[in-house]
From TrEMBL:
Signal peptide span: none
Principal location listed in the UniProt entry: cytoplasm
Active site per database record: D109 (proton acceptor)
Ligand binding (K(+)): D129
Entry GO terms, CC: cytoplasm
Catalytically driven reaction(s): (R)-pantothenate + ATP = (R)-4'-phosphopantothenate + ADP + H(+)
A Pfam entry, by short name: Pan_kinase
Organism: Bradyrhizobium ivorense
Alphabetical UniProt keywords: ATP-binding, Coenzyme A biosynthesis, Cytoplasm, Kinase, Metal-binding, Nucleotide-binding, Potassium, Transferase
InterPro entries: ATPase_NBD, Type_III_PanK
Protein name: Type III pantothenate kinase
Highest taxon of the lineage: Bacteria
Residues involved in substrate binding: G107, S108, D109, R110, T184
Amino acid sequence: MLLAIDQGNTNSVFAVHDGEHWVAQWRSATATSRTADEYAVWLAQLMAMHKLDLGMLKACVIASVVPQAIFNLRNLSRRYLHVEPLIVGENAELGIPVRTLKPAEVGSDRLVNALGALALHAPPLIIVDSGTAIKLDVIGSDGAFEGGVIAPGVHLSMEALHAAAAKLPRIALQRPRRVIGNDTVSAIQSGVFWGHVALIEGMIARIKAERNEAMTVIATGGVASLFHDATQAIDHFDPDLTIRGLLEVHRRNAAAPTGRG
């Protein structure tokens, strides 16, 4: 079995694949101070609920945008799974051309998303990943990663608004019934929600116009489920895009002579 770990700035996803299907997945708040031992205790308890145990895991693949947390995830794999993990950006071959000025600076999550999308959809593609940041990434017609757009995510926007304006309250993120709010809370909810939708629609339209070609748009990420059905600009919502990409990374590296256990 494979343990796939997708670690973002806000949340981390741990998923188990048995060679044919995803059999379980769990989400945890990302904490850079969590040790390998703490990860192991947490993971073992959750796996036991599915009649699984750590000894069943024979491979591990990790994509993380939090460099200071990779050390403990690597130790989790080495100490408790007894395998050397594949880490995107370190020892994993992705097999995808990266056509940017500085390919080494492209986040591992963006490249893994590209692999996950290409496993199911024909390019060219636009991938909309809504998390701590919102990223709109472009995959060319030949399957190459060609860059994209990064903007503050919806939760960052809400926190910045509250922090900078003392009289504005914290609000719950939800889809308002009307665009025009009739009180402060509903006005903020509309601005955050429909403003985010407008950002997505506007950037998709500009990307398509700049490239002058039809493109399939796929949405993923922790908050994308709130937005994908609020706009016709998104063709598919895929909550498992990143872990599917990690599975593809594992498959592409499985036969490589890297000395992993």
